[in-house]
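Deliverable D2.4 — example input (structure tokens):
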């Protein structure tokens, strides 16, 4: 068992609250000529809450009720069967769930020990006894990462008194449907004191449904970029259905946030085969609203979601969005970490082994209404495209963003600059152990071969100890945290700028 994204009992609260929302949720169907859409709330953690309706025609005593309008990844102990009007209590005595849908492997196992026909070619049949049906178990992992499974056993068939470890041909099974399931099935025993007929709401949690957000940012030609640019931003939600069930009509909502979900089953390695992605590009009508400590996105339309299908729906189409380009140089060793326990590092070469020359490109986008955005943005991948002088759109980098509230700023690291470079070296070092003093000086050189000047944010990590002071510098700085400072440095076109600073440590 593993727990992802530790939180309060948000999932249970969300499921109950969703089931009780009357406004945009489906109501009990009255027109039997058109089936009511299934309501799906899909979480970006490979599960969903499904809600549908079934007709109950009860007589006094114990009633056997079945439905196949469920998925093959249903969590049986999550099932809720209730009267949506709240006027009746549904007394479920027993519930059974069977996801063993008929397949060749299932039938081979069913007829293990029996003799059936195998077709070798059209008109040619041989009889064989199934000694062992065989099995193939994919690799699985437990909650602690331990690998299990990955086992395989070939079928064992007796033909003409000899054993063979493969099927002699296509198996031909007797034409019997006893015990065969074409769809996953839920069966209940329901106790009723009187005859009653009403439409009940069925809600459950199922695996195999997932969604993710992706964003495309298109900016113009960069030949004259000096700071801010205007861009188009397109946002898509991509929905995957590997639940084993088709949803011909579905009303879909998407929950964004880190909801606590306990995984009690081992999870298998390896994804299924997706059908070709289907894109639905319409005028964005996706709406969002806060829900508990999360955000709920409603597609506001009925869609068909087939098993194995990947569907994309556009939810953002914004123009004239301001994108600010910045450059960042972090020349210290990326392996350094601050020490908050009063220790002090006196080694002369501390933090000098990186040899870092790359300057990162940072694209910043304010997620605000004034910047033609302002919707809370789900976590996802952001791809940046830029048009060249001929109008051709080229891919120039991508980044991953976390869930981003309104008024926050997206900071996209899209690569490293070709024409802007940095270098860092220590020019002075002195330590006085008796007085517990250490002074060192650094020189950071930035070069720019672009036709425009650039501003580079130079980040320095003062990780030797807790007590430090910059007492000599060639440029101003901003203190980012207790061990990090940032110098904004202007670098002229086709030129270079050198930053120097000295830091004084005590311990």
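Example output (designed residues):
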């Amino acid at each position: 068992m593993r727990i992802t994204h530790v939180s309060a009992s948000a999932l249970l609260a969300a499921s109950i609250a969703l089931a009780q929302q009357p406004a945009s949720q489906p109501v009990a169907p009255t027109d039997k000529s058109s089936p009511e859409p299934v309501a799906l709330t899909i979480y970006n953690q490979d599960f969903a809450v499904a809600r549908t309706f079934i007709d109950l025609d009860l007589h006094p005593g114990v009633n056997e009720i079945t439905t196949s309008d469920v998925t093959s990844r249903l969590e049986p102990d999550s099932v809720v069967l209730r009267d949506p009007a709240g006027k009746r209590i549904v007394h479920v005595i027993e519930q059974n769930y069977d996801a063993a849908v008929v397949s060749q492997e299932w039938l081979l196992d069913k007829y293990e020990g029996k003799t059936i026909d195998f077709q070798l070619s059209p008109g040619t049949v041989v009889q064989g006894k199934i000694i062992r049906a065989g099995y193939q178990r994919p690799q699985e992992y437990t909650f602690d990462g331990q690998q299990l499974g990955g086992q395989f056993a070939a079928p064992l068939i007796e033909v003409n008194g000899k054993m063979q470890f493969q099927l002699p041909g296509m198996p031909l099974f007797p034409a019997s449907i006893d015990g065969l399931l074409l769809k996953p099935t839920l069966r209940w025993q329901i106790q009723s004191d009187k005859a009653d007929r009403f439409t009940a709401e069925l809600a459950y949690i199922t695996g195999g449904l997932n969604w993710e957000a992706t964003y495309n940012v298109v900016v113009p030609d960069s030949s004259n970029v000096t700071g801010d640019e205007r861009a188009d931003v397109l946002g898509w939600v991509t929905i995957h259905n590997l639940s084993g069930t088709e949803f011909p009509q579905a009303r879909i909502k998407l929950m964004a946030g880190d909801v606590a979900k306990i995984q009690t089953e081992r999870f298998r390695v390896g994804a299924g085969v997706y059908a070709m992605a289907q894109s639905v590009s319409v005028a964005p009508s996706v709406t969002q609203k806060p829900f508990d400590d999360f955000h709920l996105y409603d597609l506001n339309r009925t869609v068909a979601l087939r098993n194995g299908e990947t569907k994309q729906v556009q939810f953002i189409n914004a123009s004239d969005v301001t994108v600010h380009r910045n450059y960042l140089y972090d020349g210290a060793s990326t392996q350094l970490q601050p020490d908050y326990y009063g220790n002090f590092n006196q080694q002369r070469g501390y933090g000098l082994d990186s040899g870092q020359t790359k300057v990162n490109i940072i694209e910043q986008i304010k997620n605000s209404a004034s910047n033609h955005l302002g919707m809370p943005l789900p976590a996802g991948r952001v791809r940046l495209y830029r048009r060249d002088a001929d109008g051709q759109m080229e891919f120039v980098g991508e980044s991953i963003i976390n869930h981003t509230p309104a008024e926050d700023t997206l900071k996209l690291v899209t690569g490293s600059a070709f024409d802007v470079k940095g270098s860092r070296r220590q020019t002075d070092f002195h330590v006085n152990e008796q007085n517990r003093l250490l002074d060192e000086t650094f020189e950071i050189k930035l070069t720019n071969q672009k036709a425009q000047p650039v501003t580079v944010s130079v980040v320095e990590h003062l990780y030797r100890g807790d007590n430090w002071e910059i007492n000599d510098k060639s440029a101003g700085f901003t203190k980012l945290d207790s061990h990090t400072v940032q110098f904004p440095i202007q670098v002229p076109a086709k030129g270079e700028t050198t930053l120097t600073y000295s830091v004084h440590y005590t311990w």
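Residues 320-506 form a domain with the Immunoglobulin-like fold (CATH 2.60.40.290).
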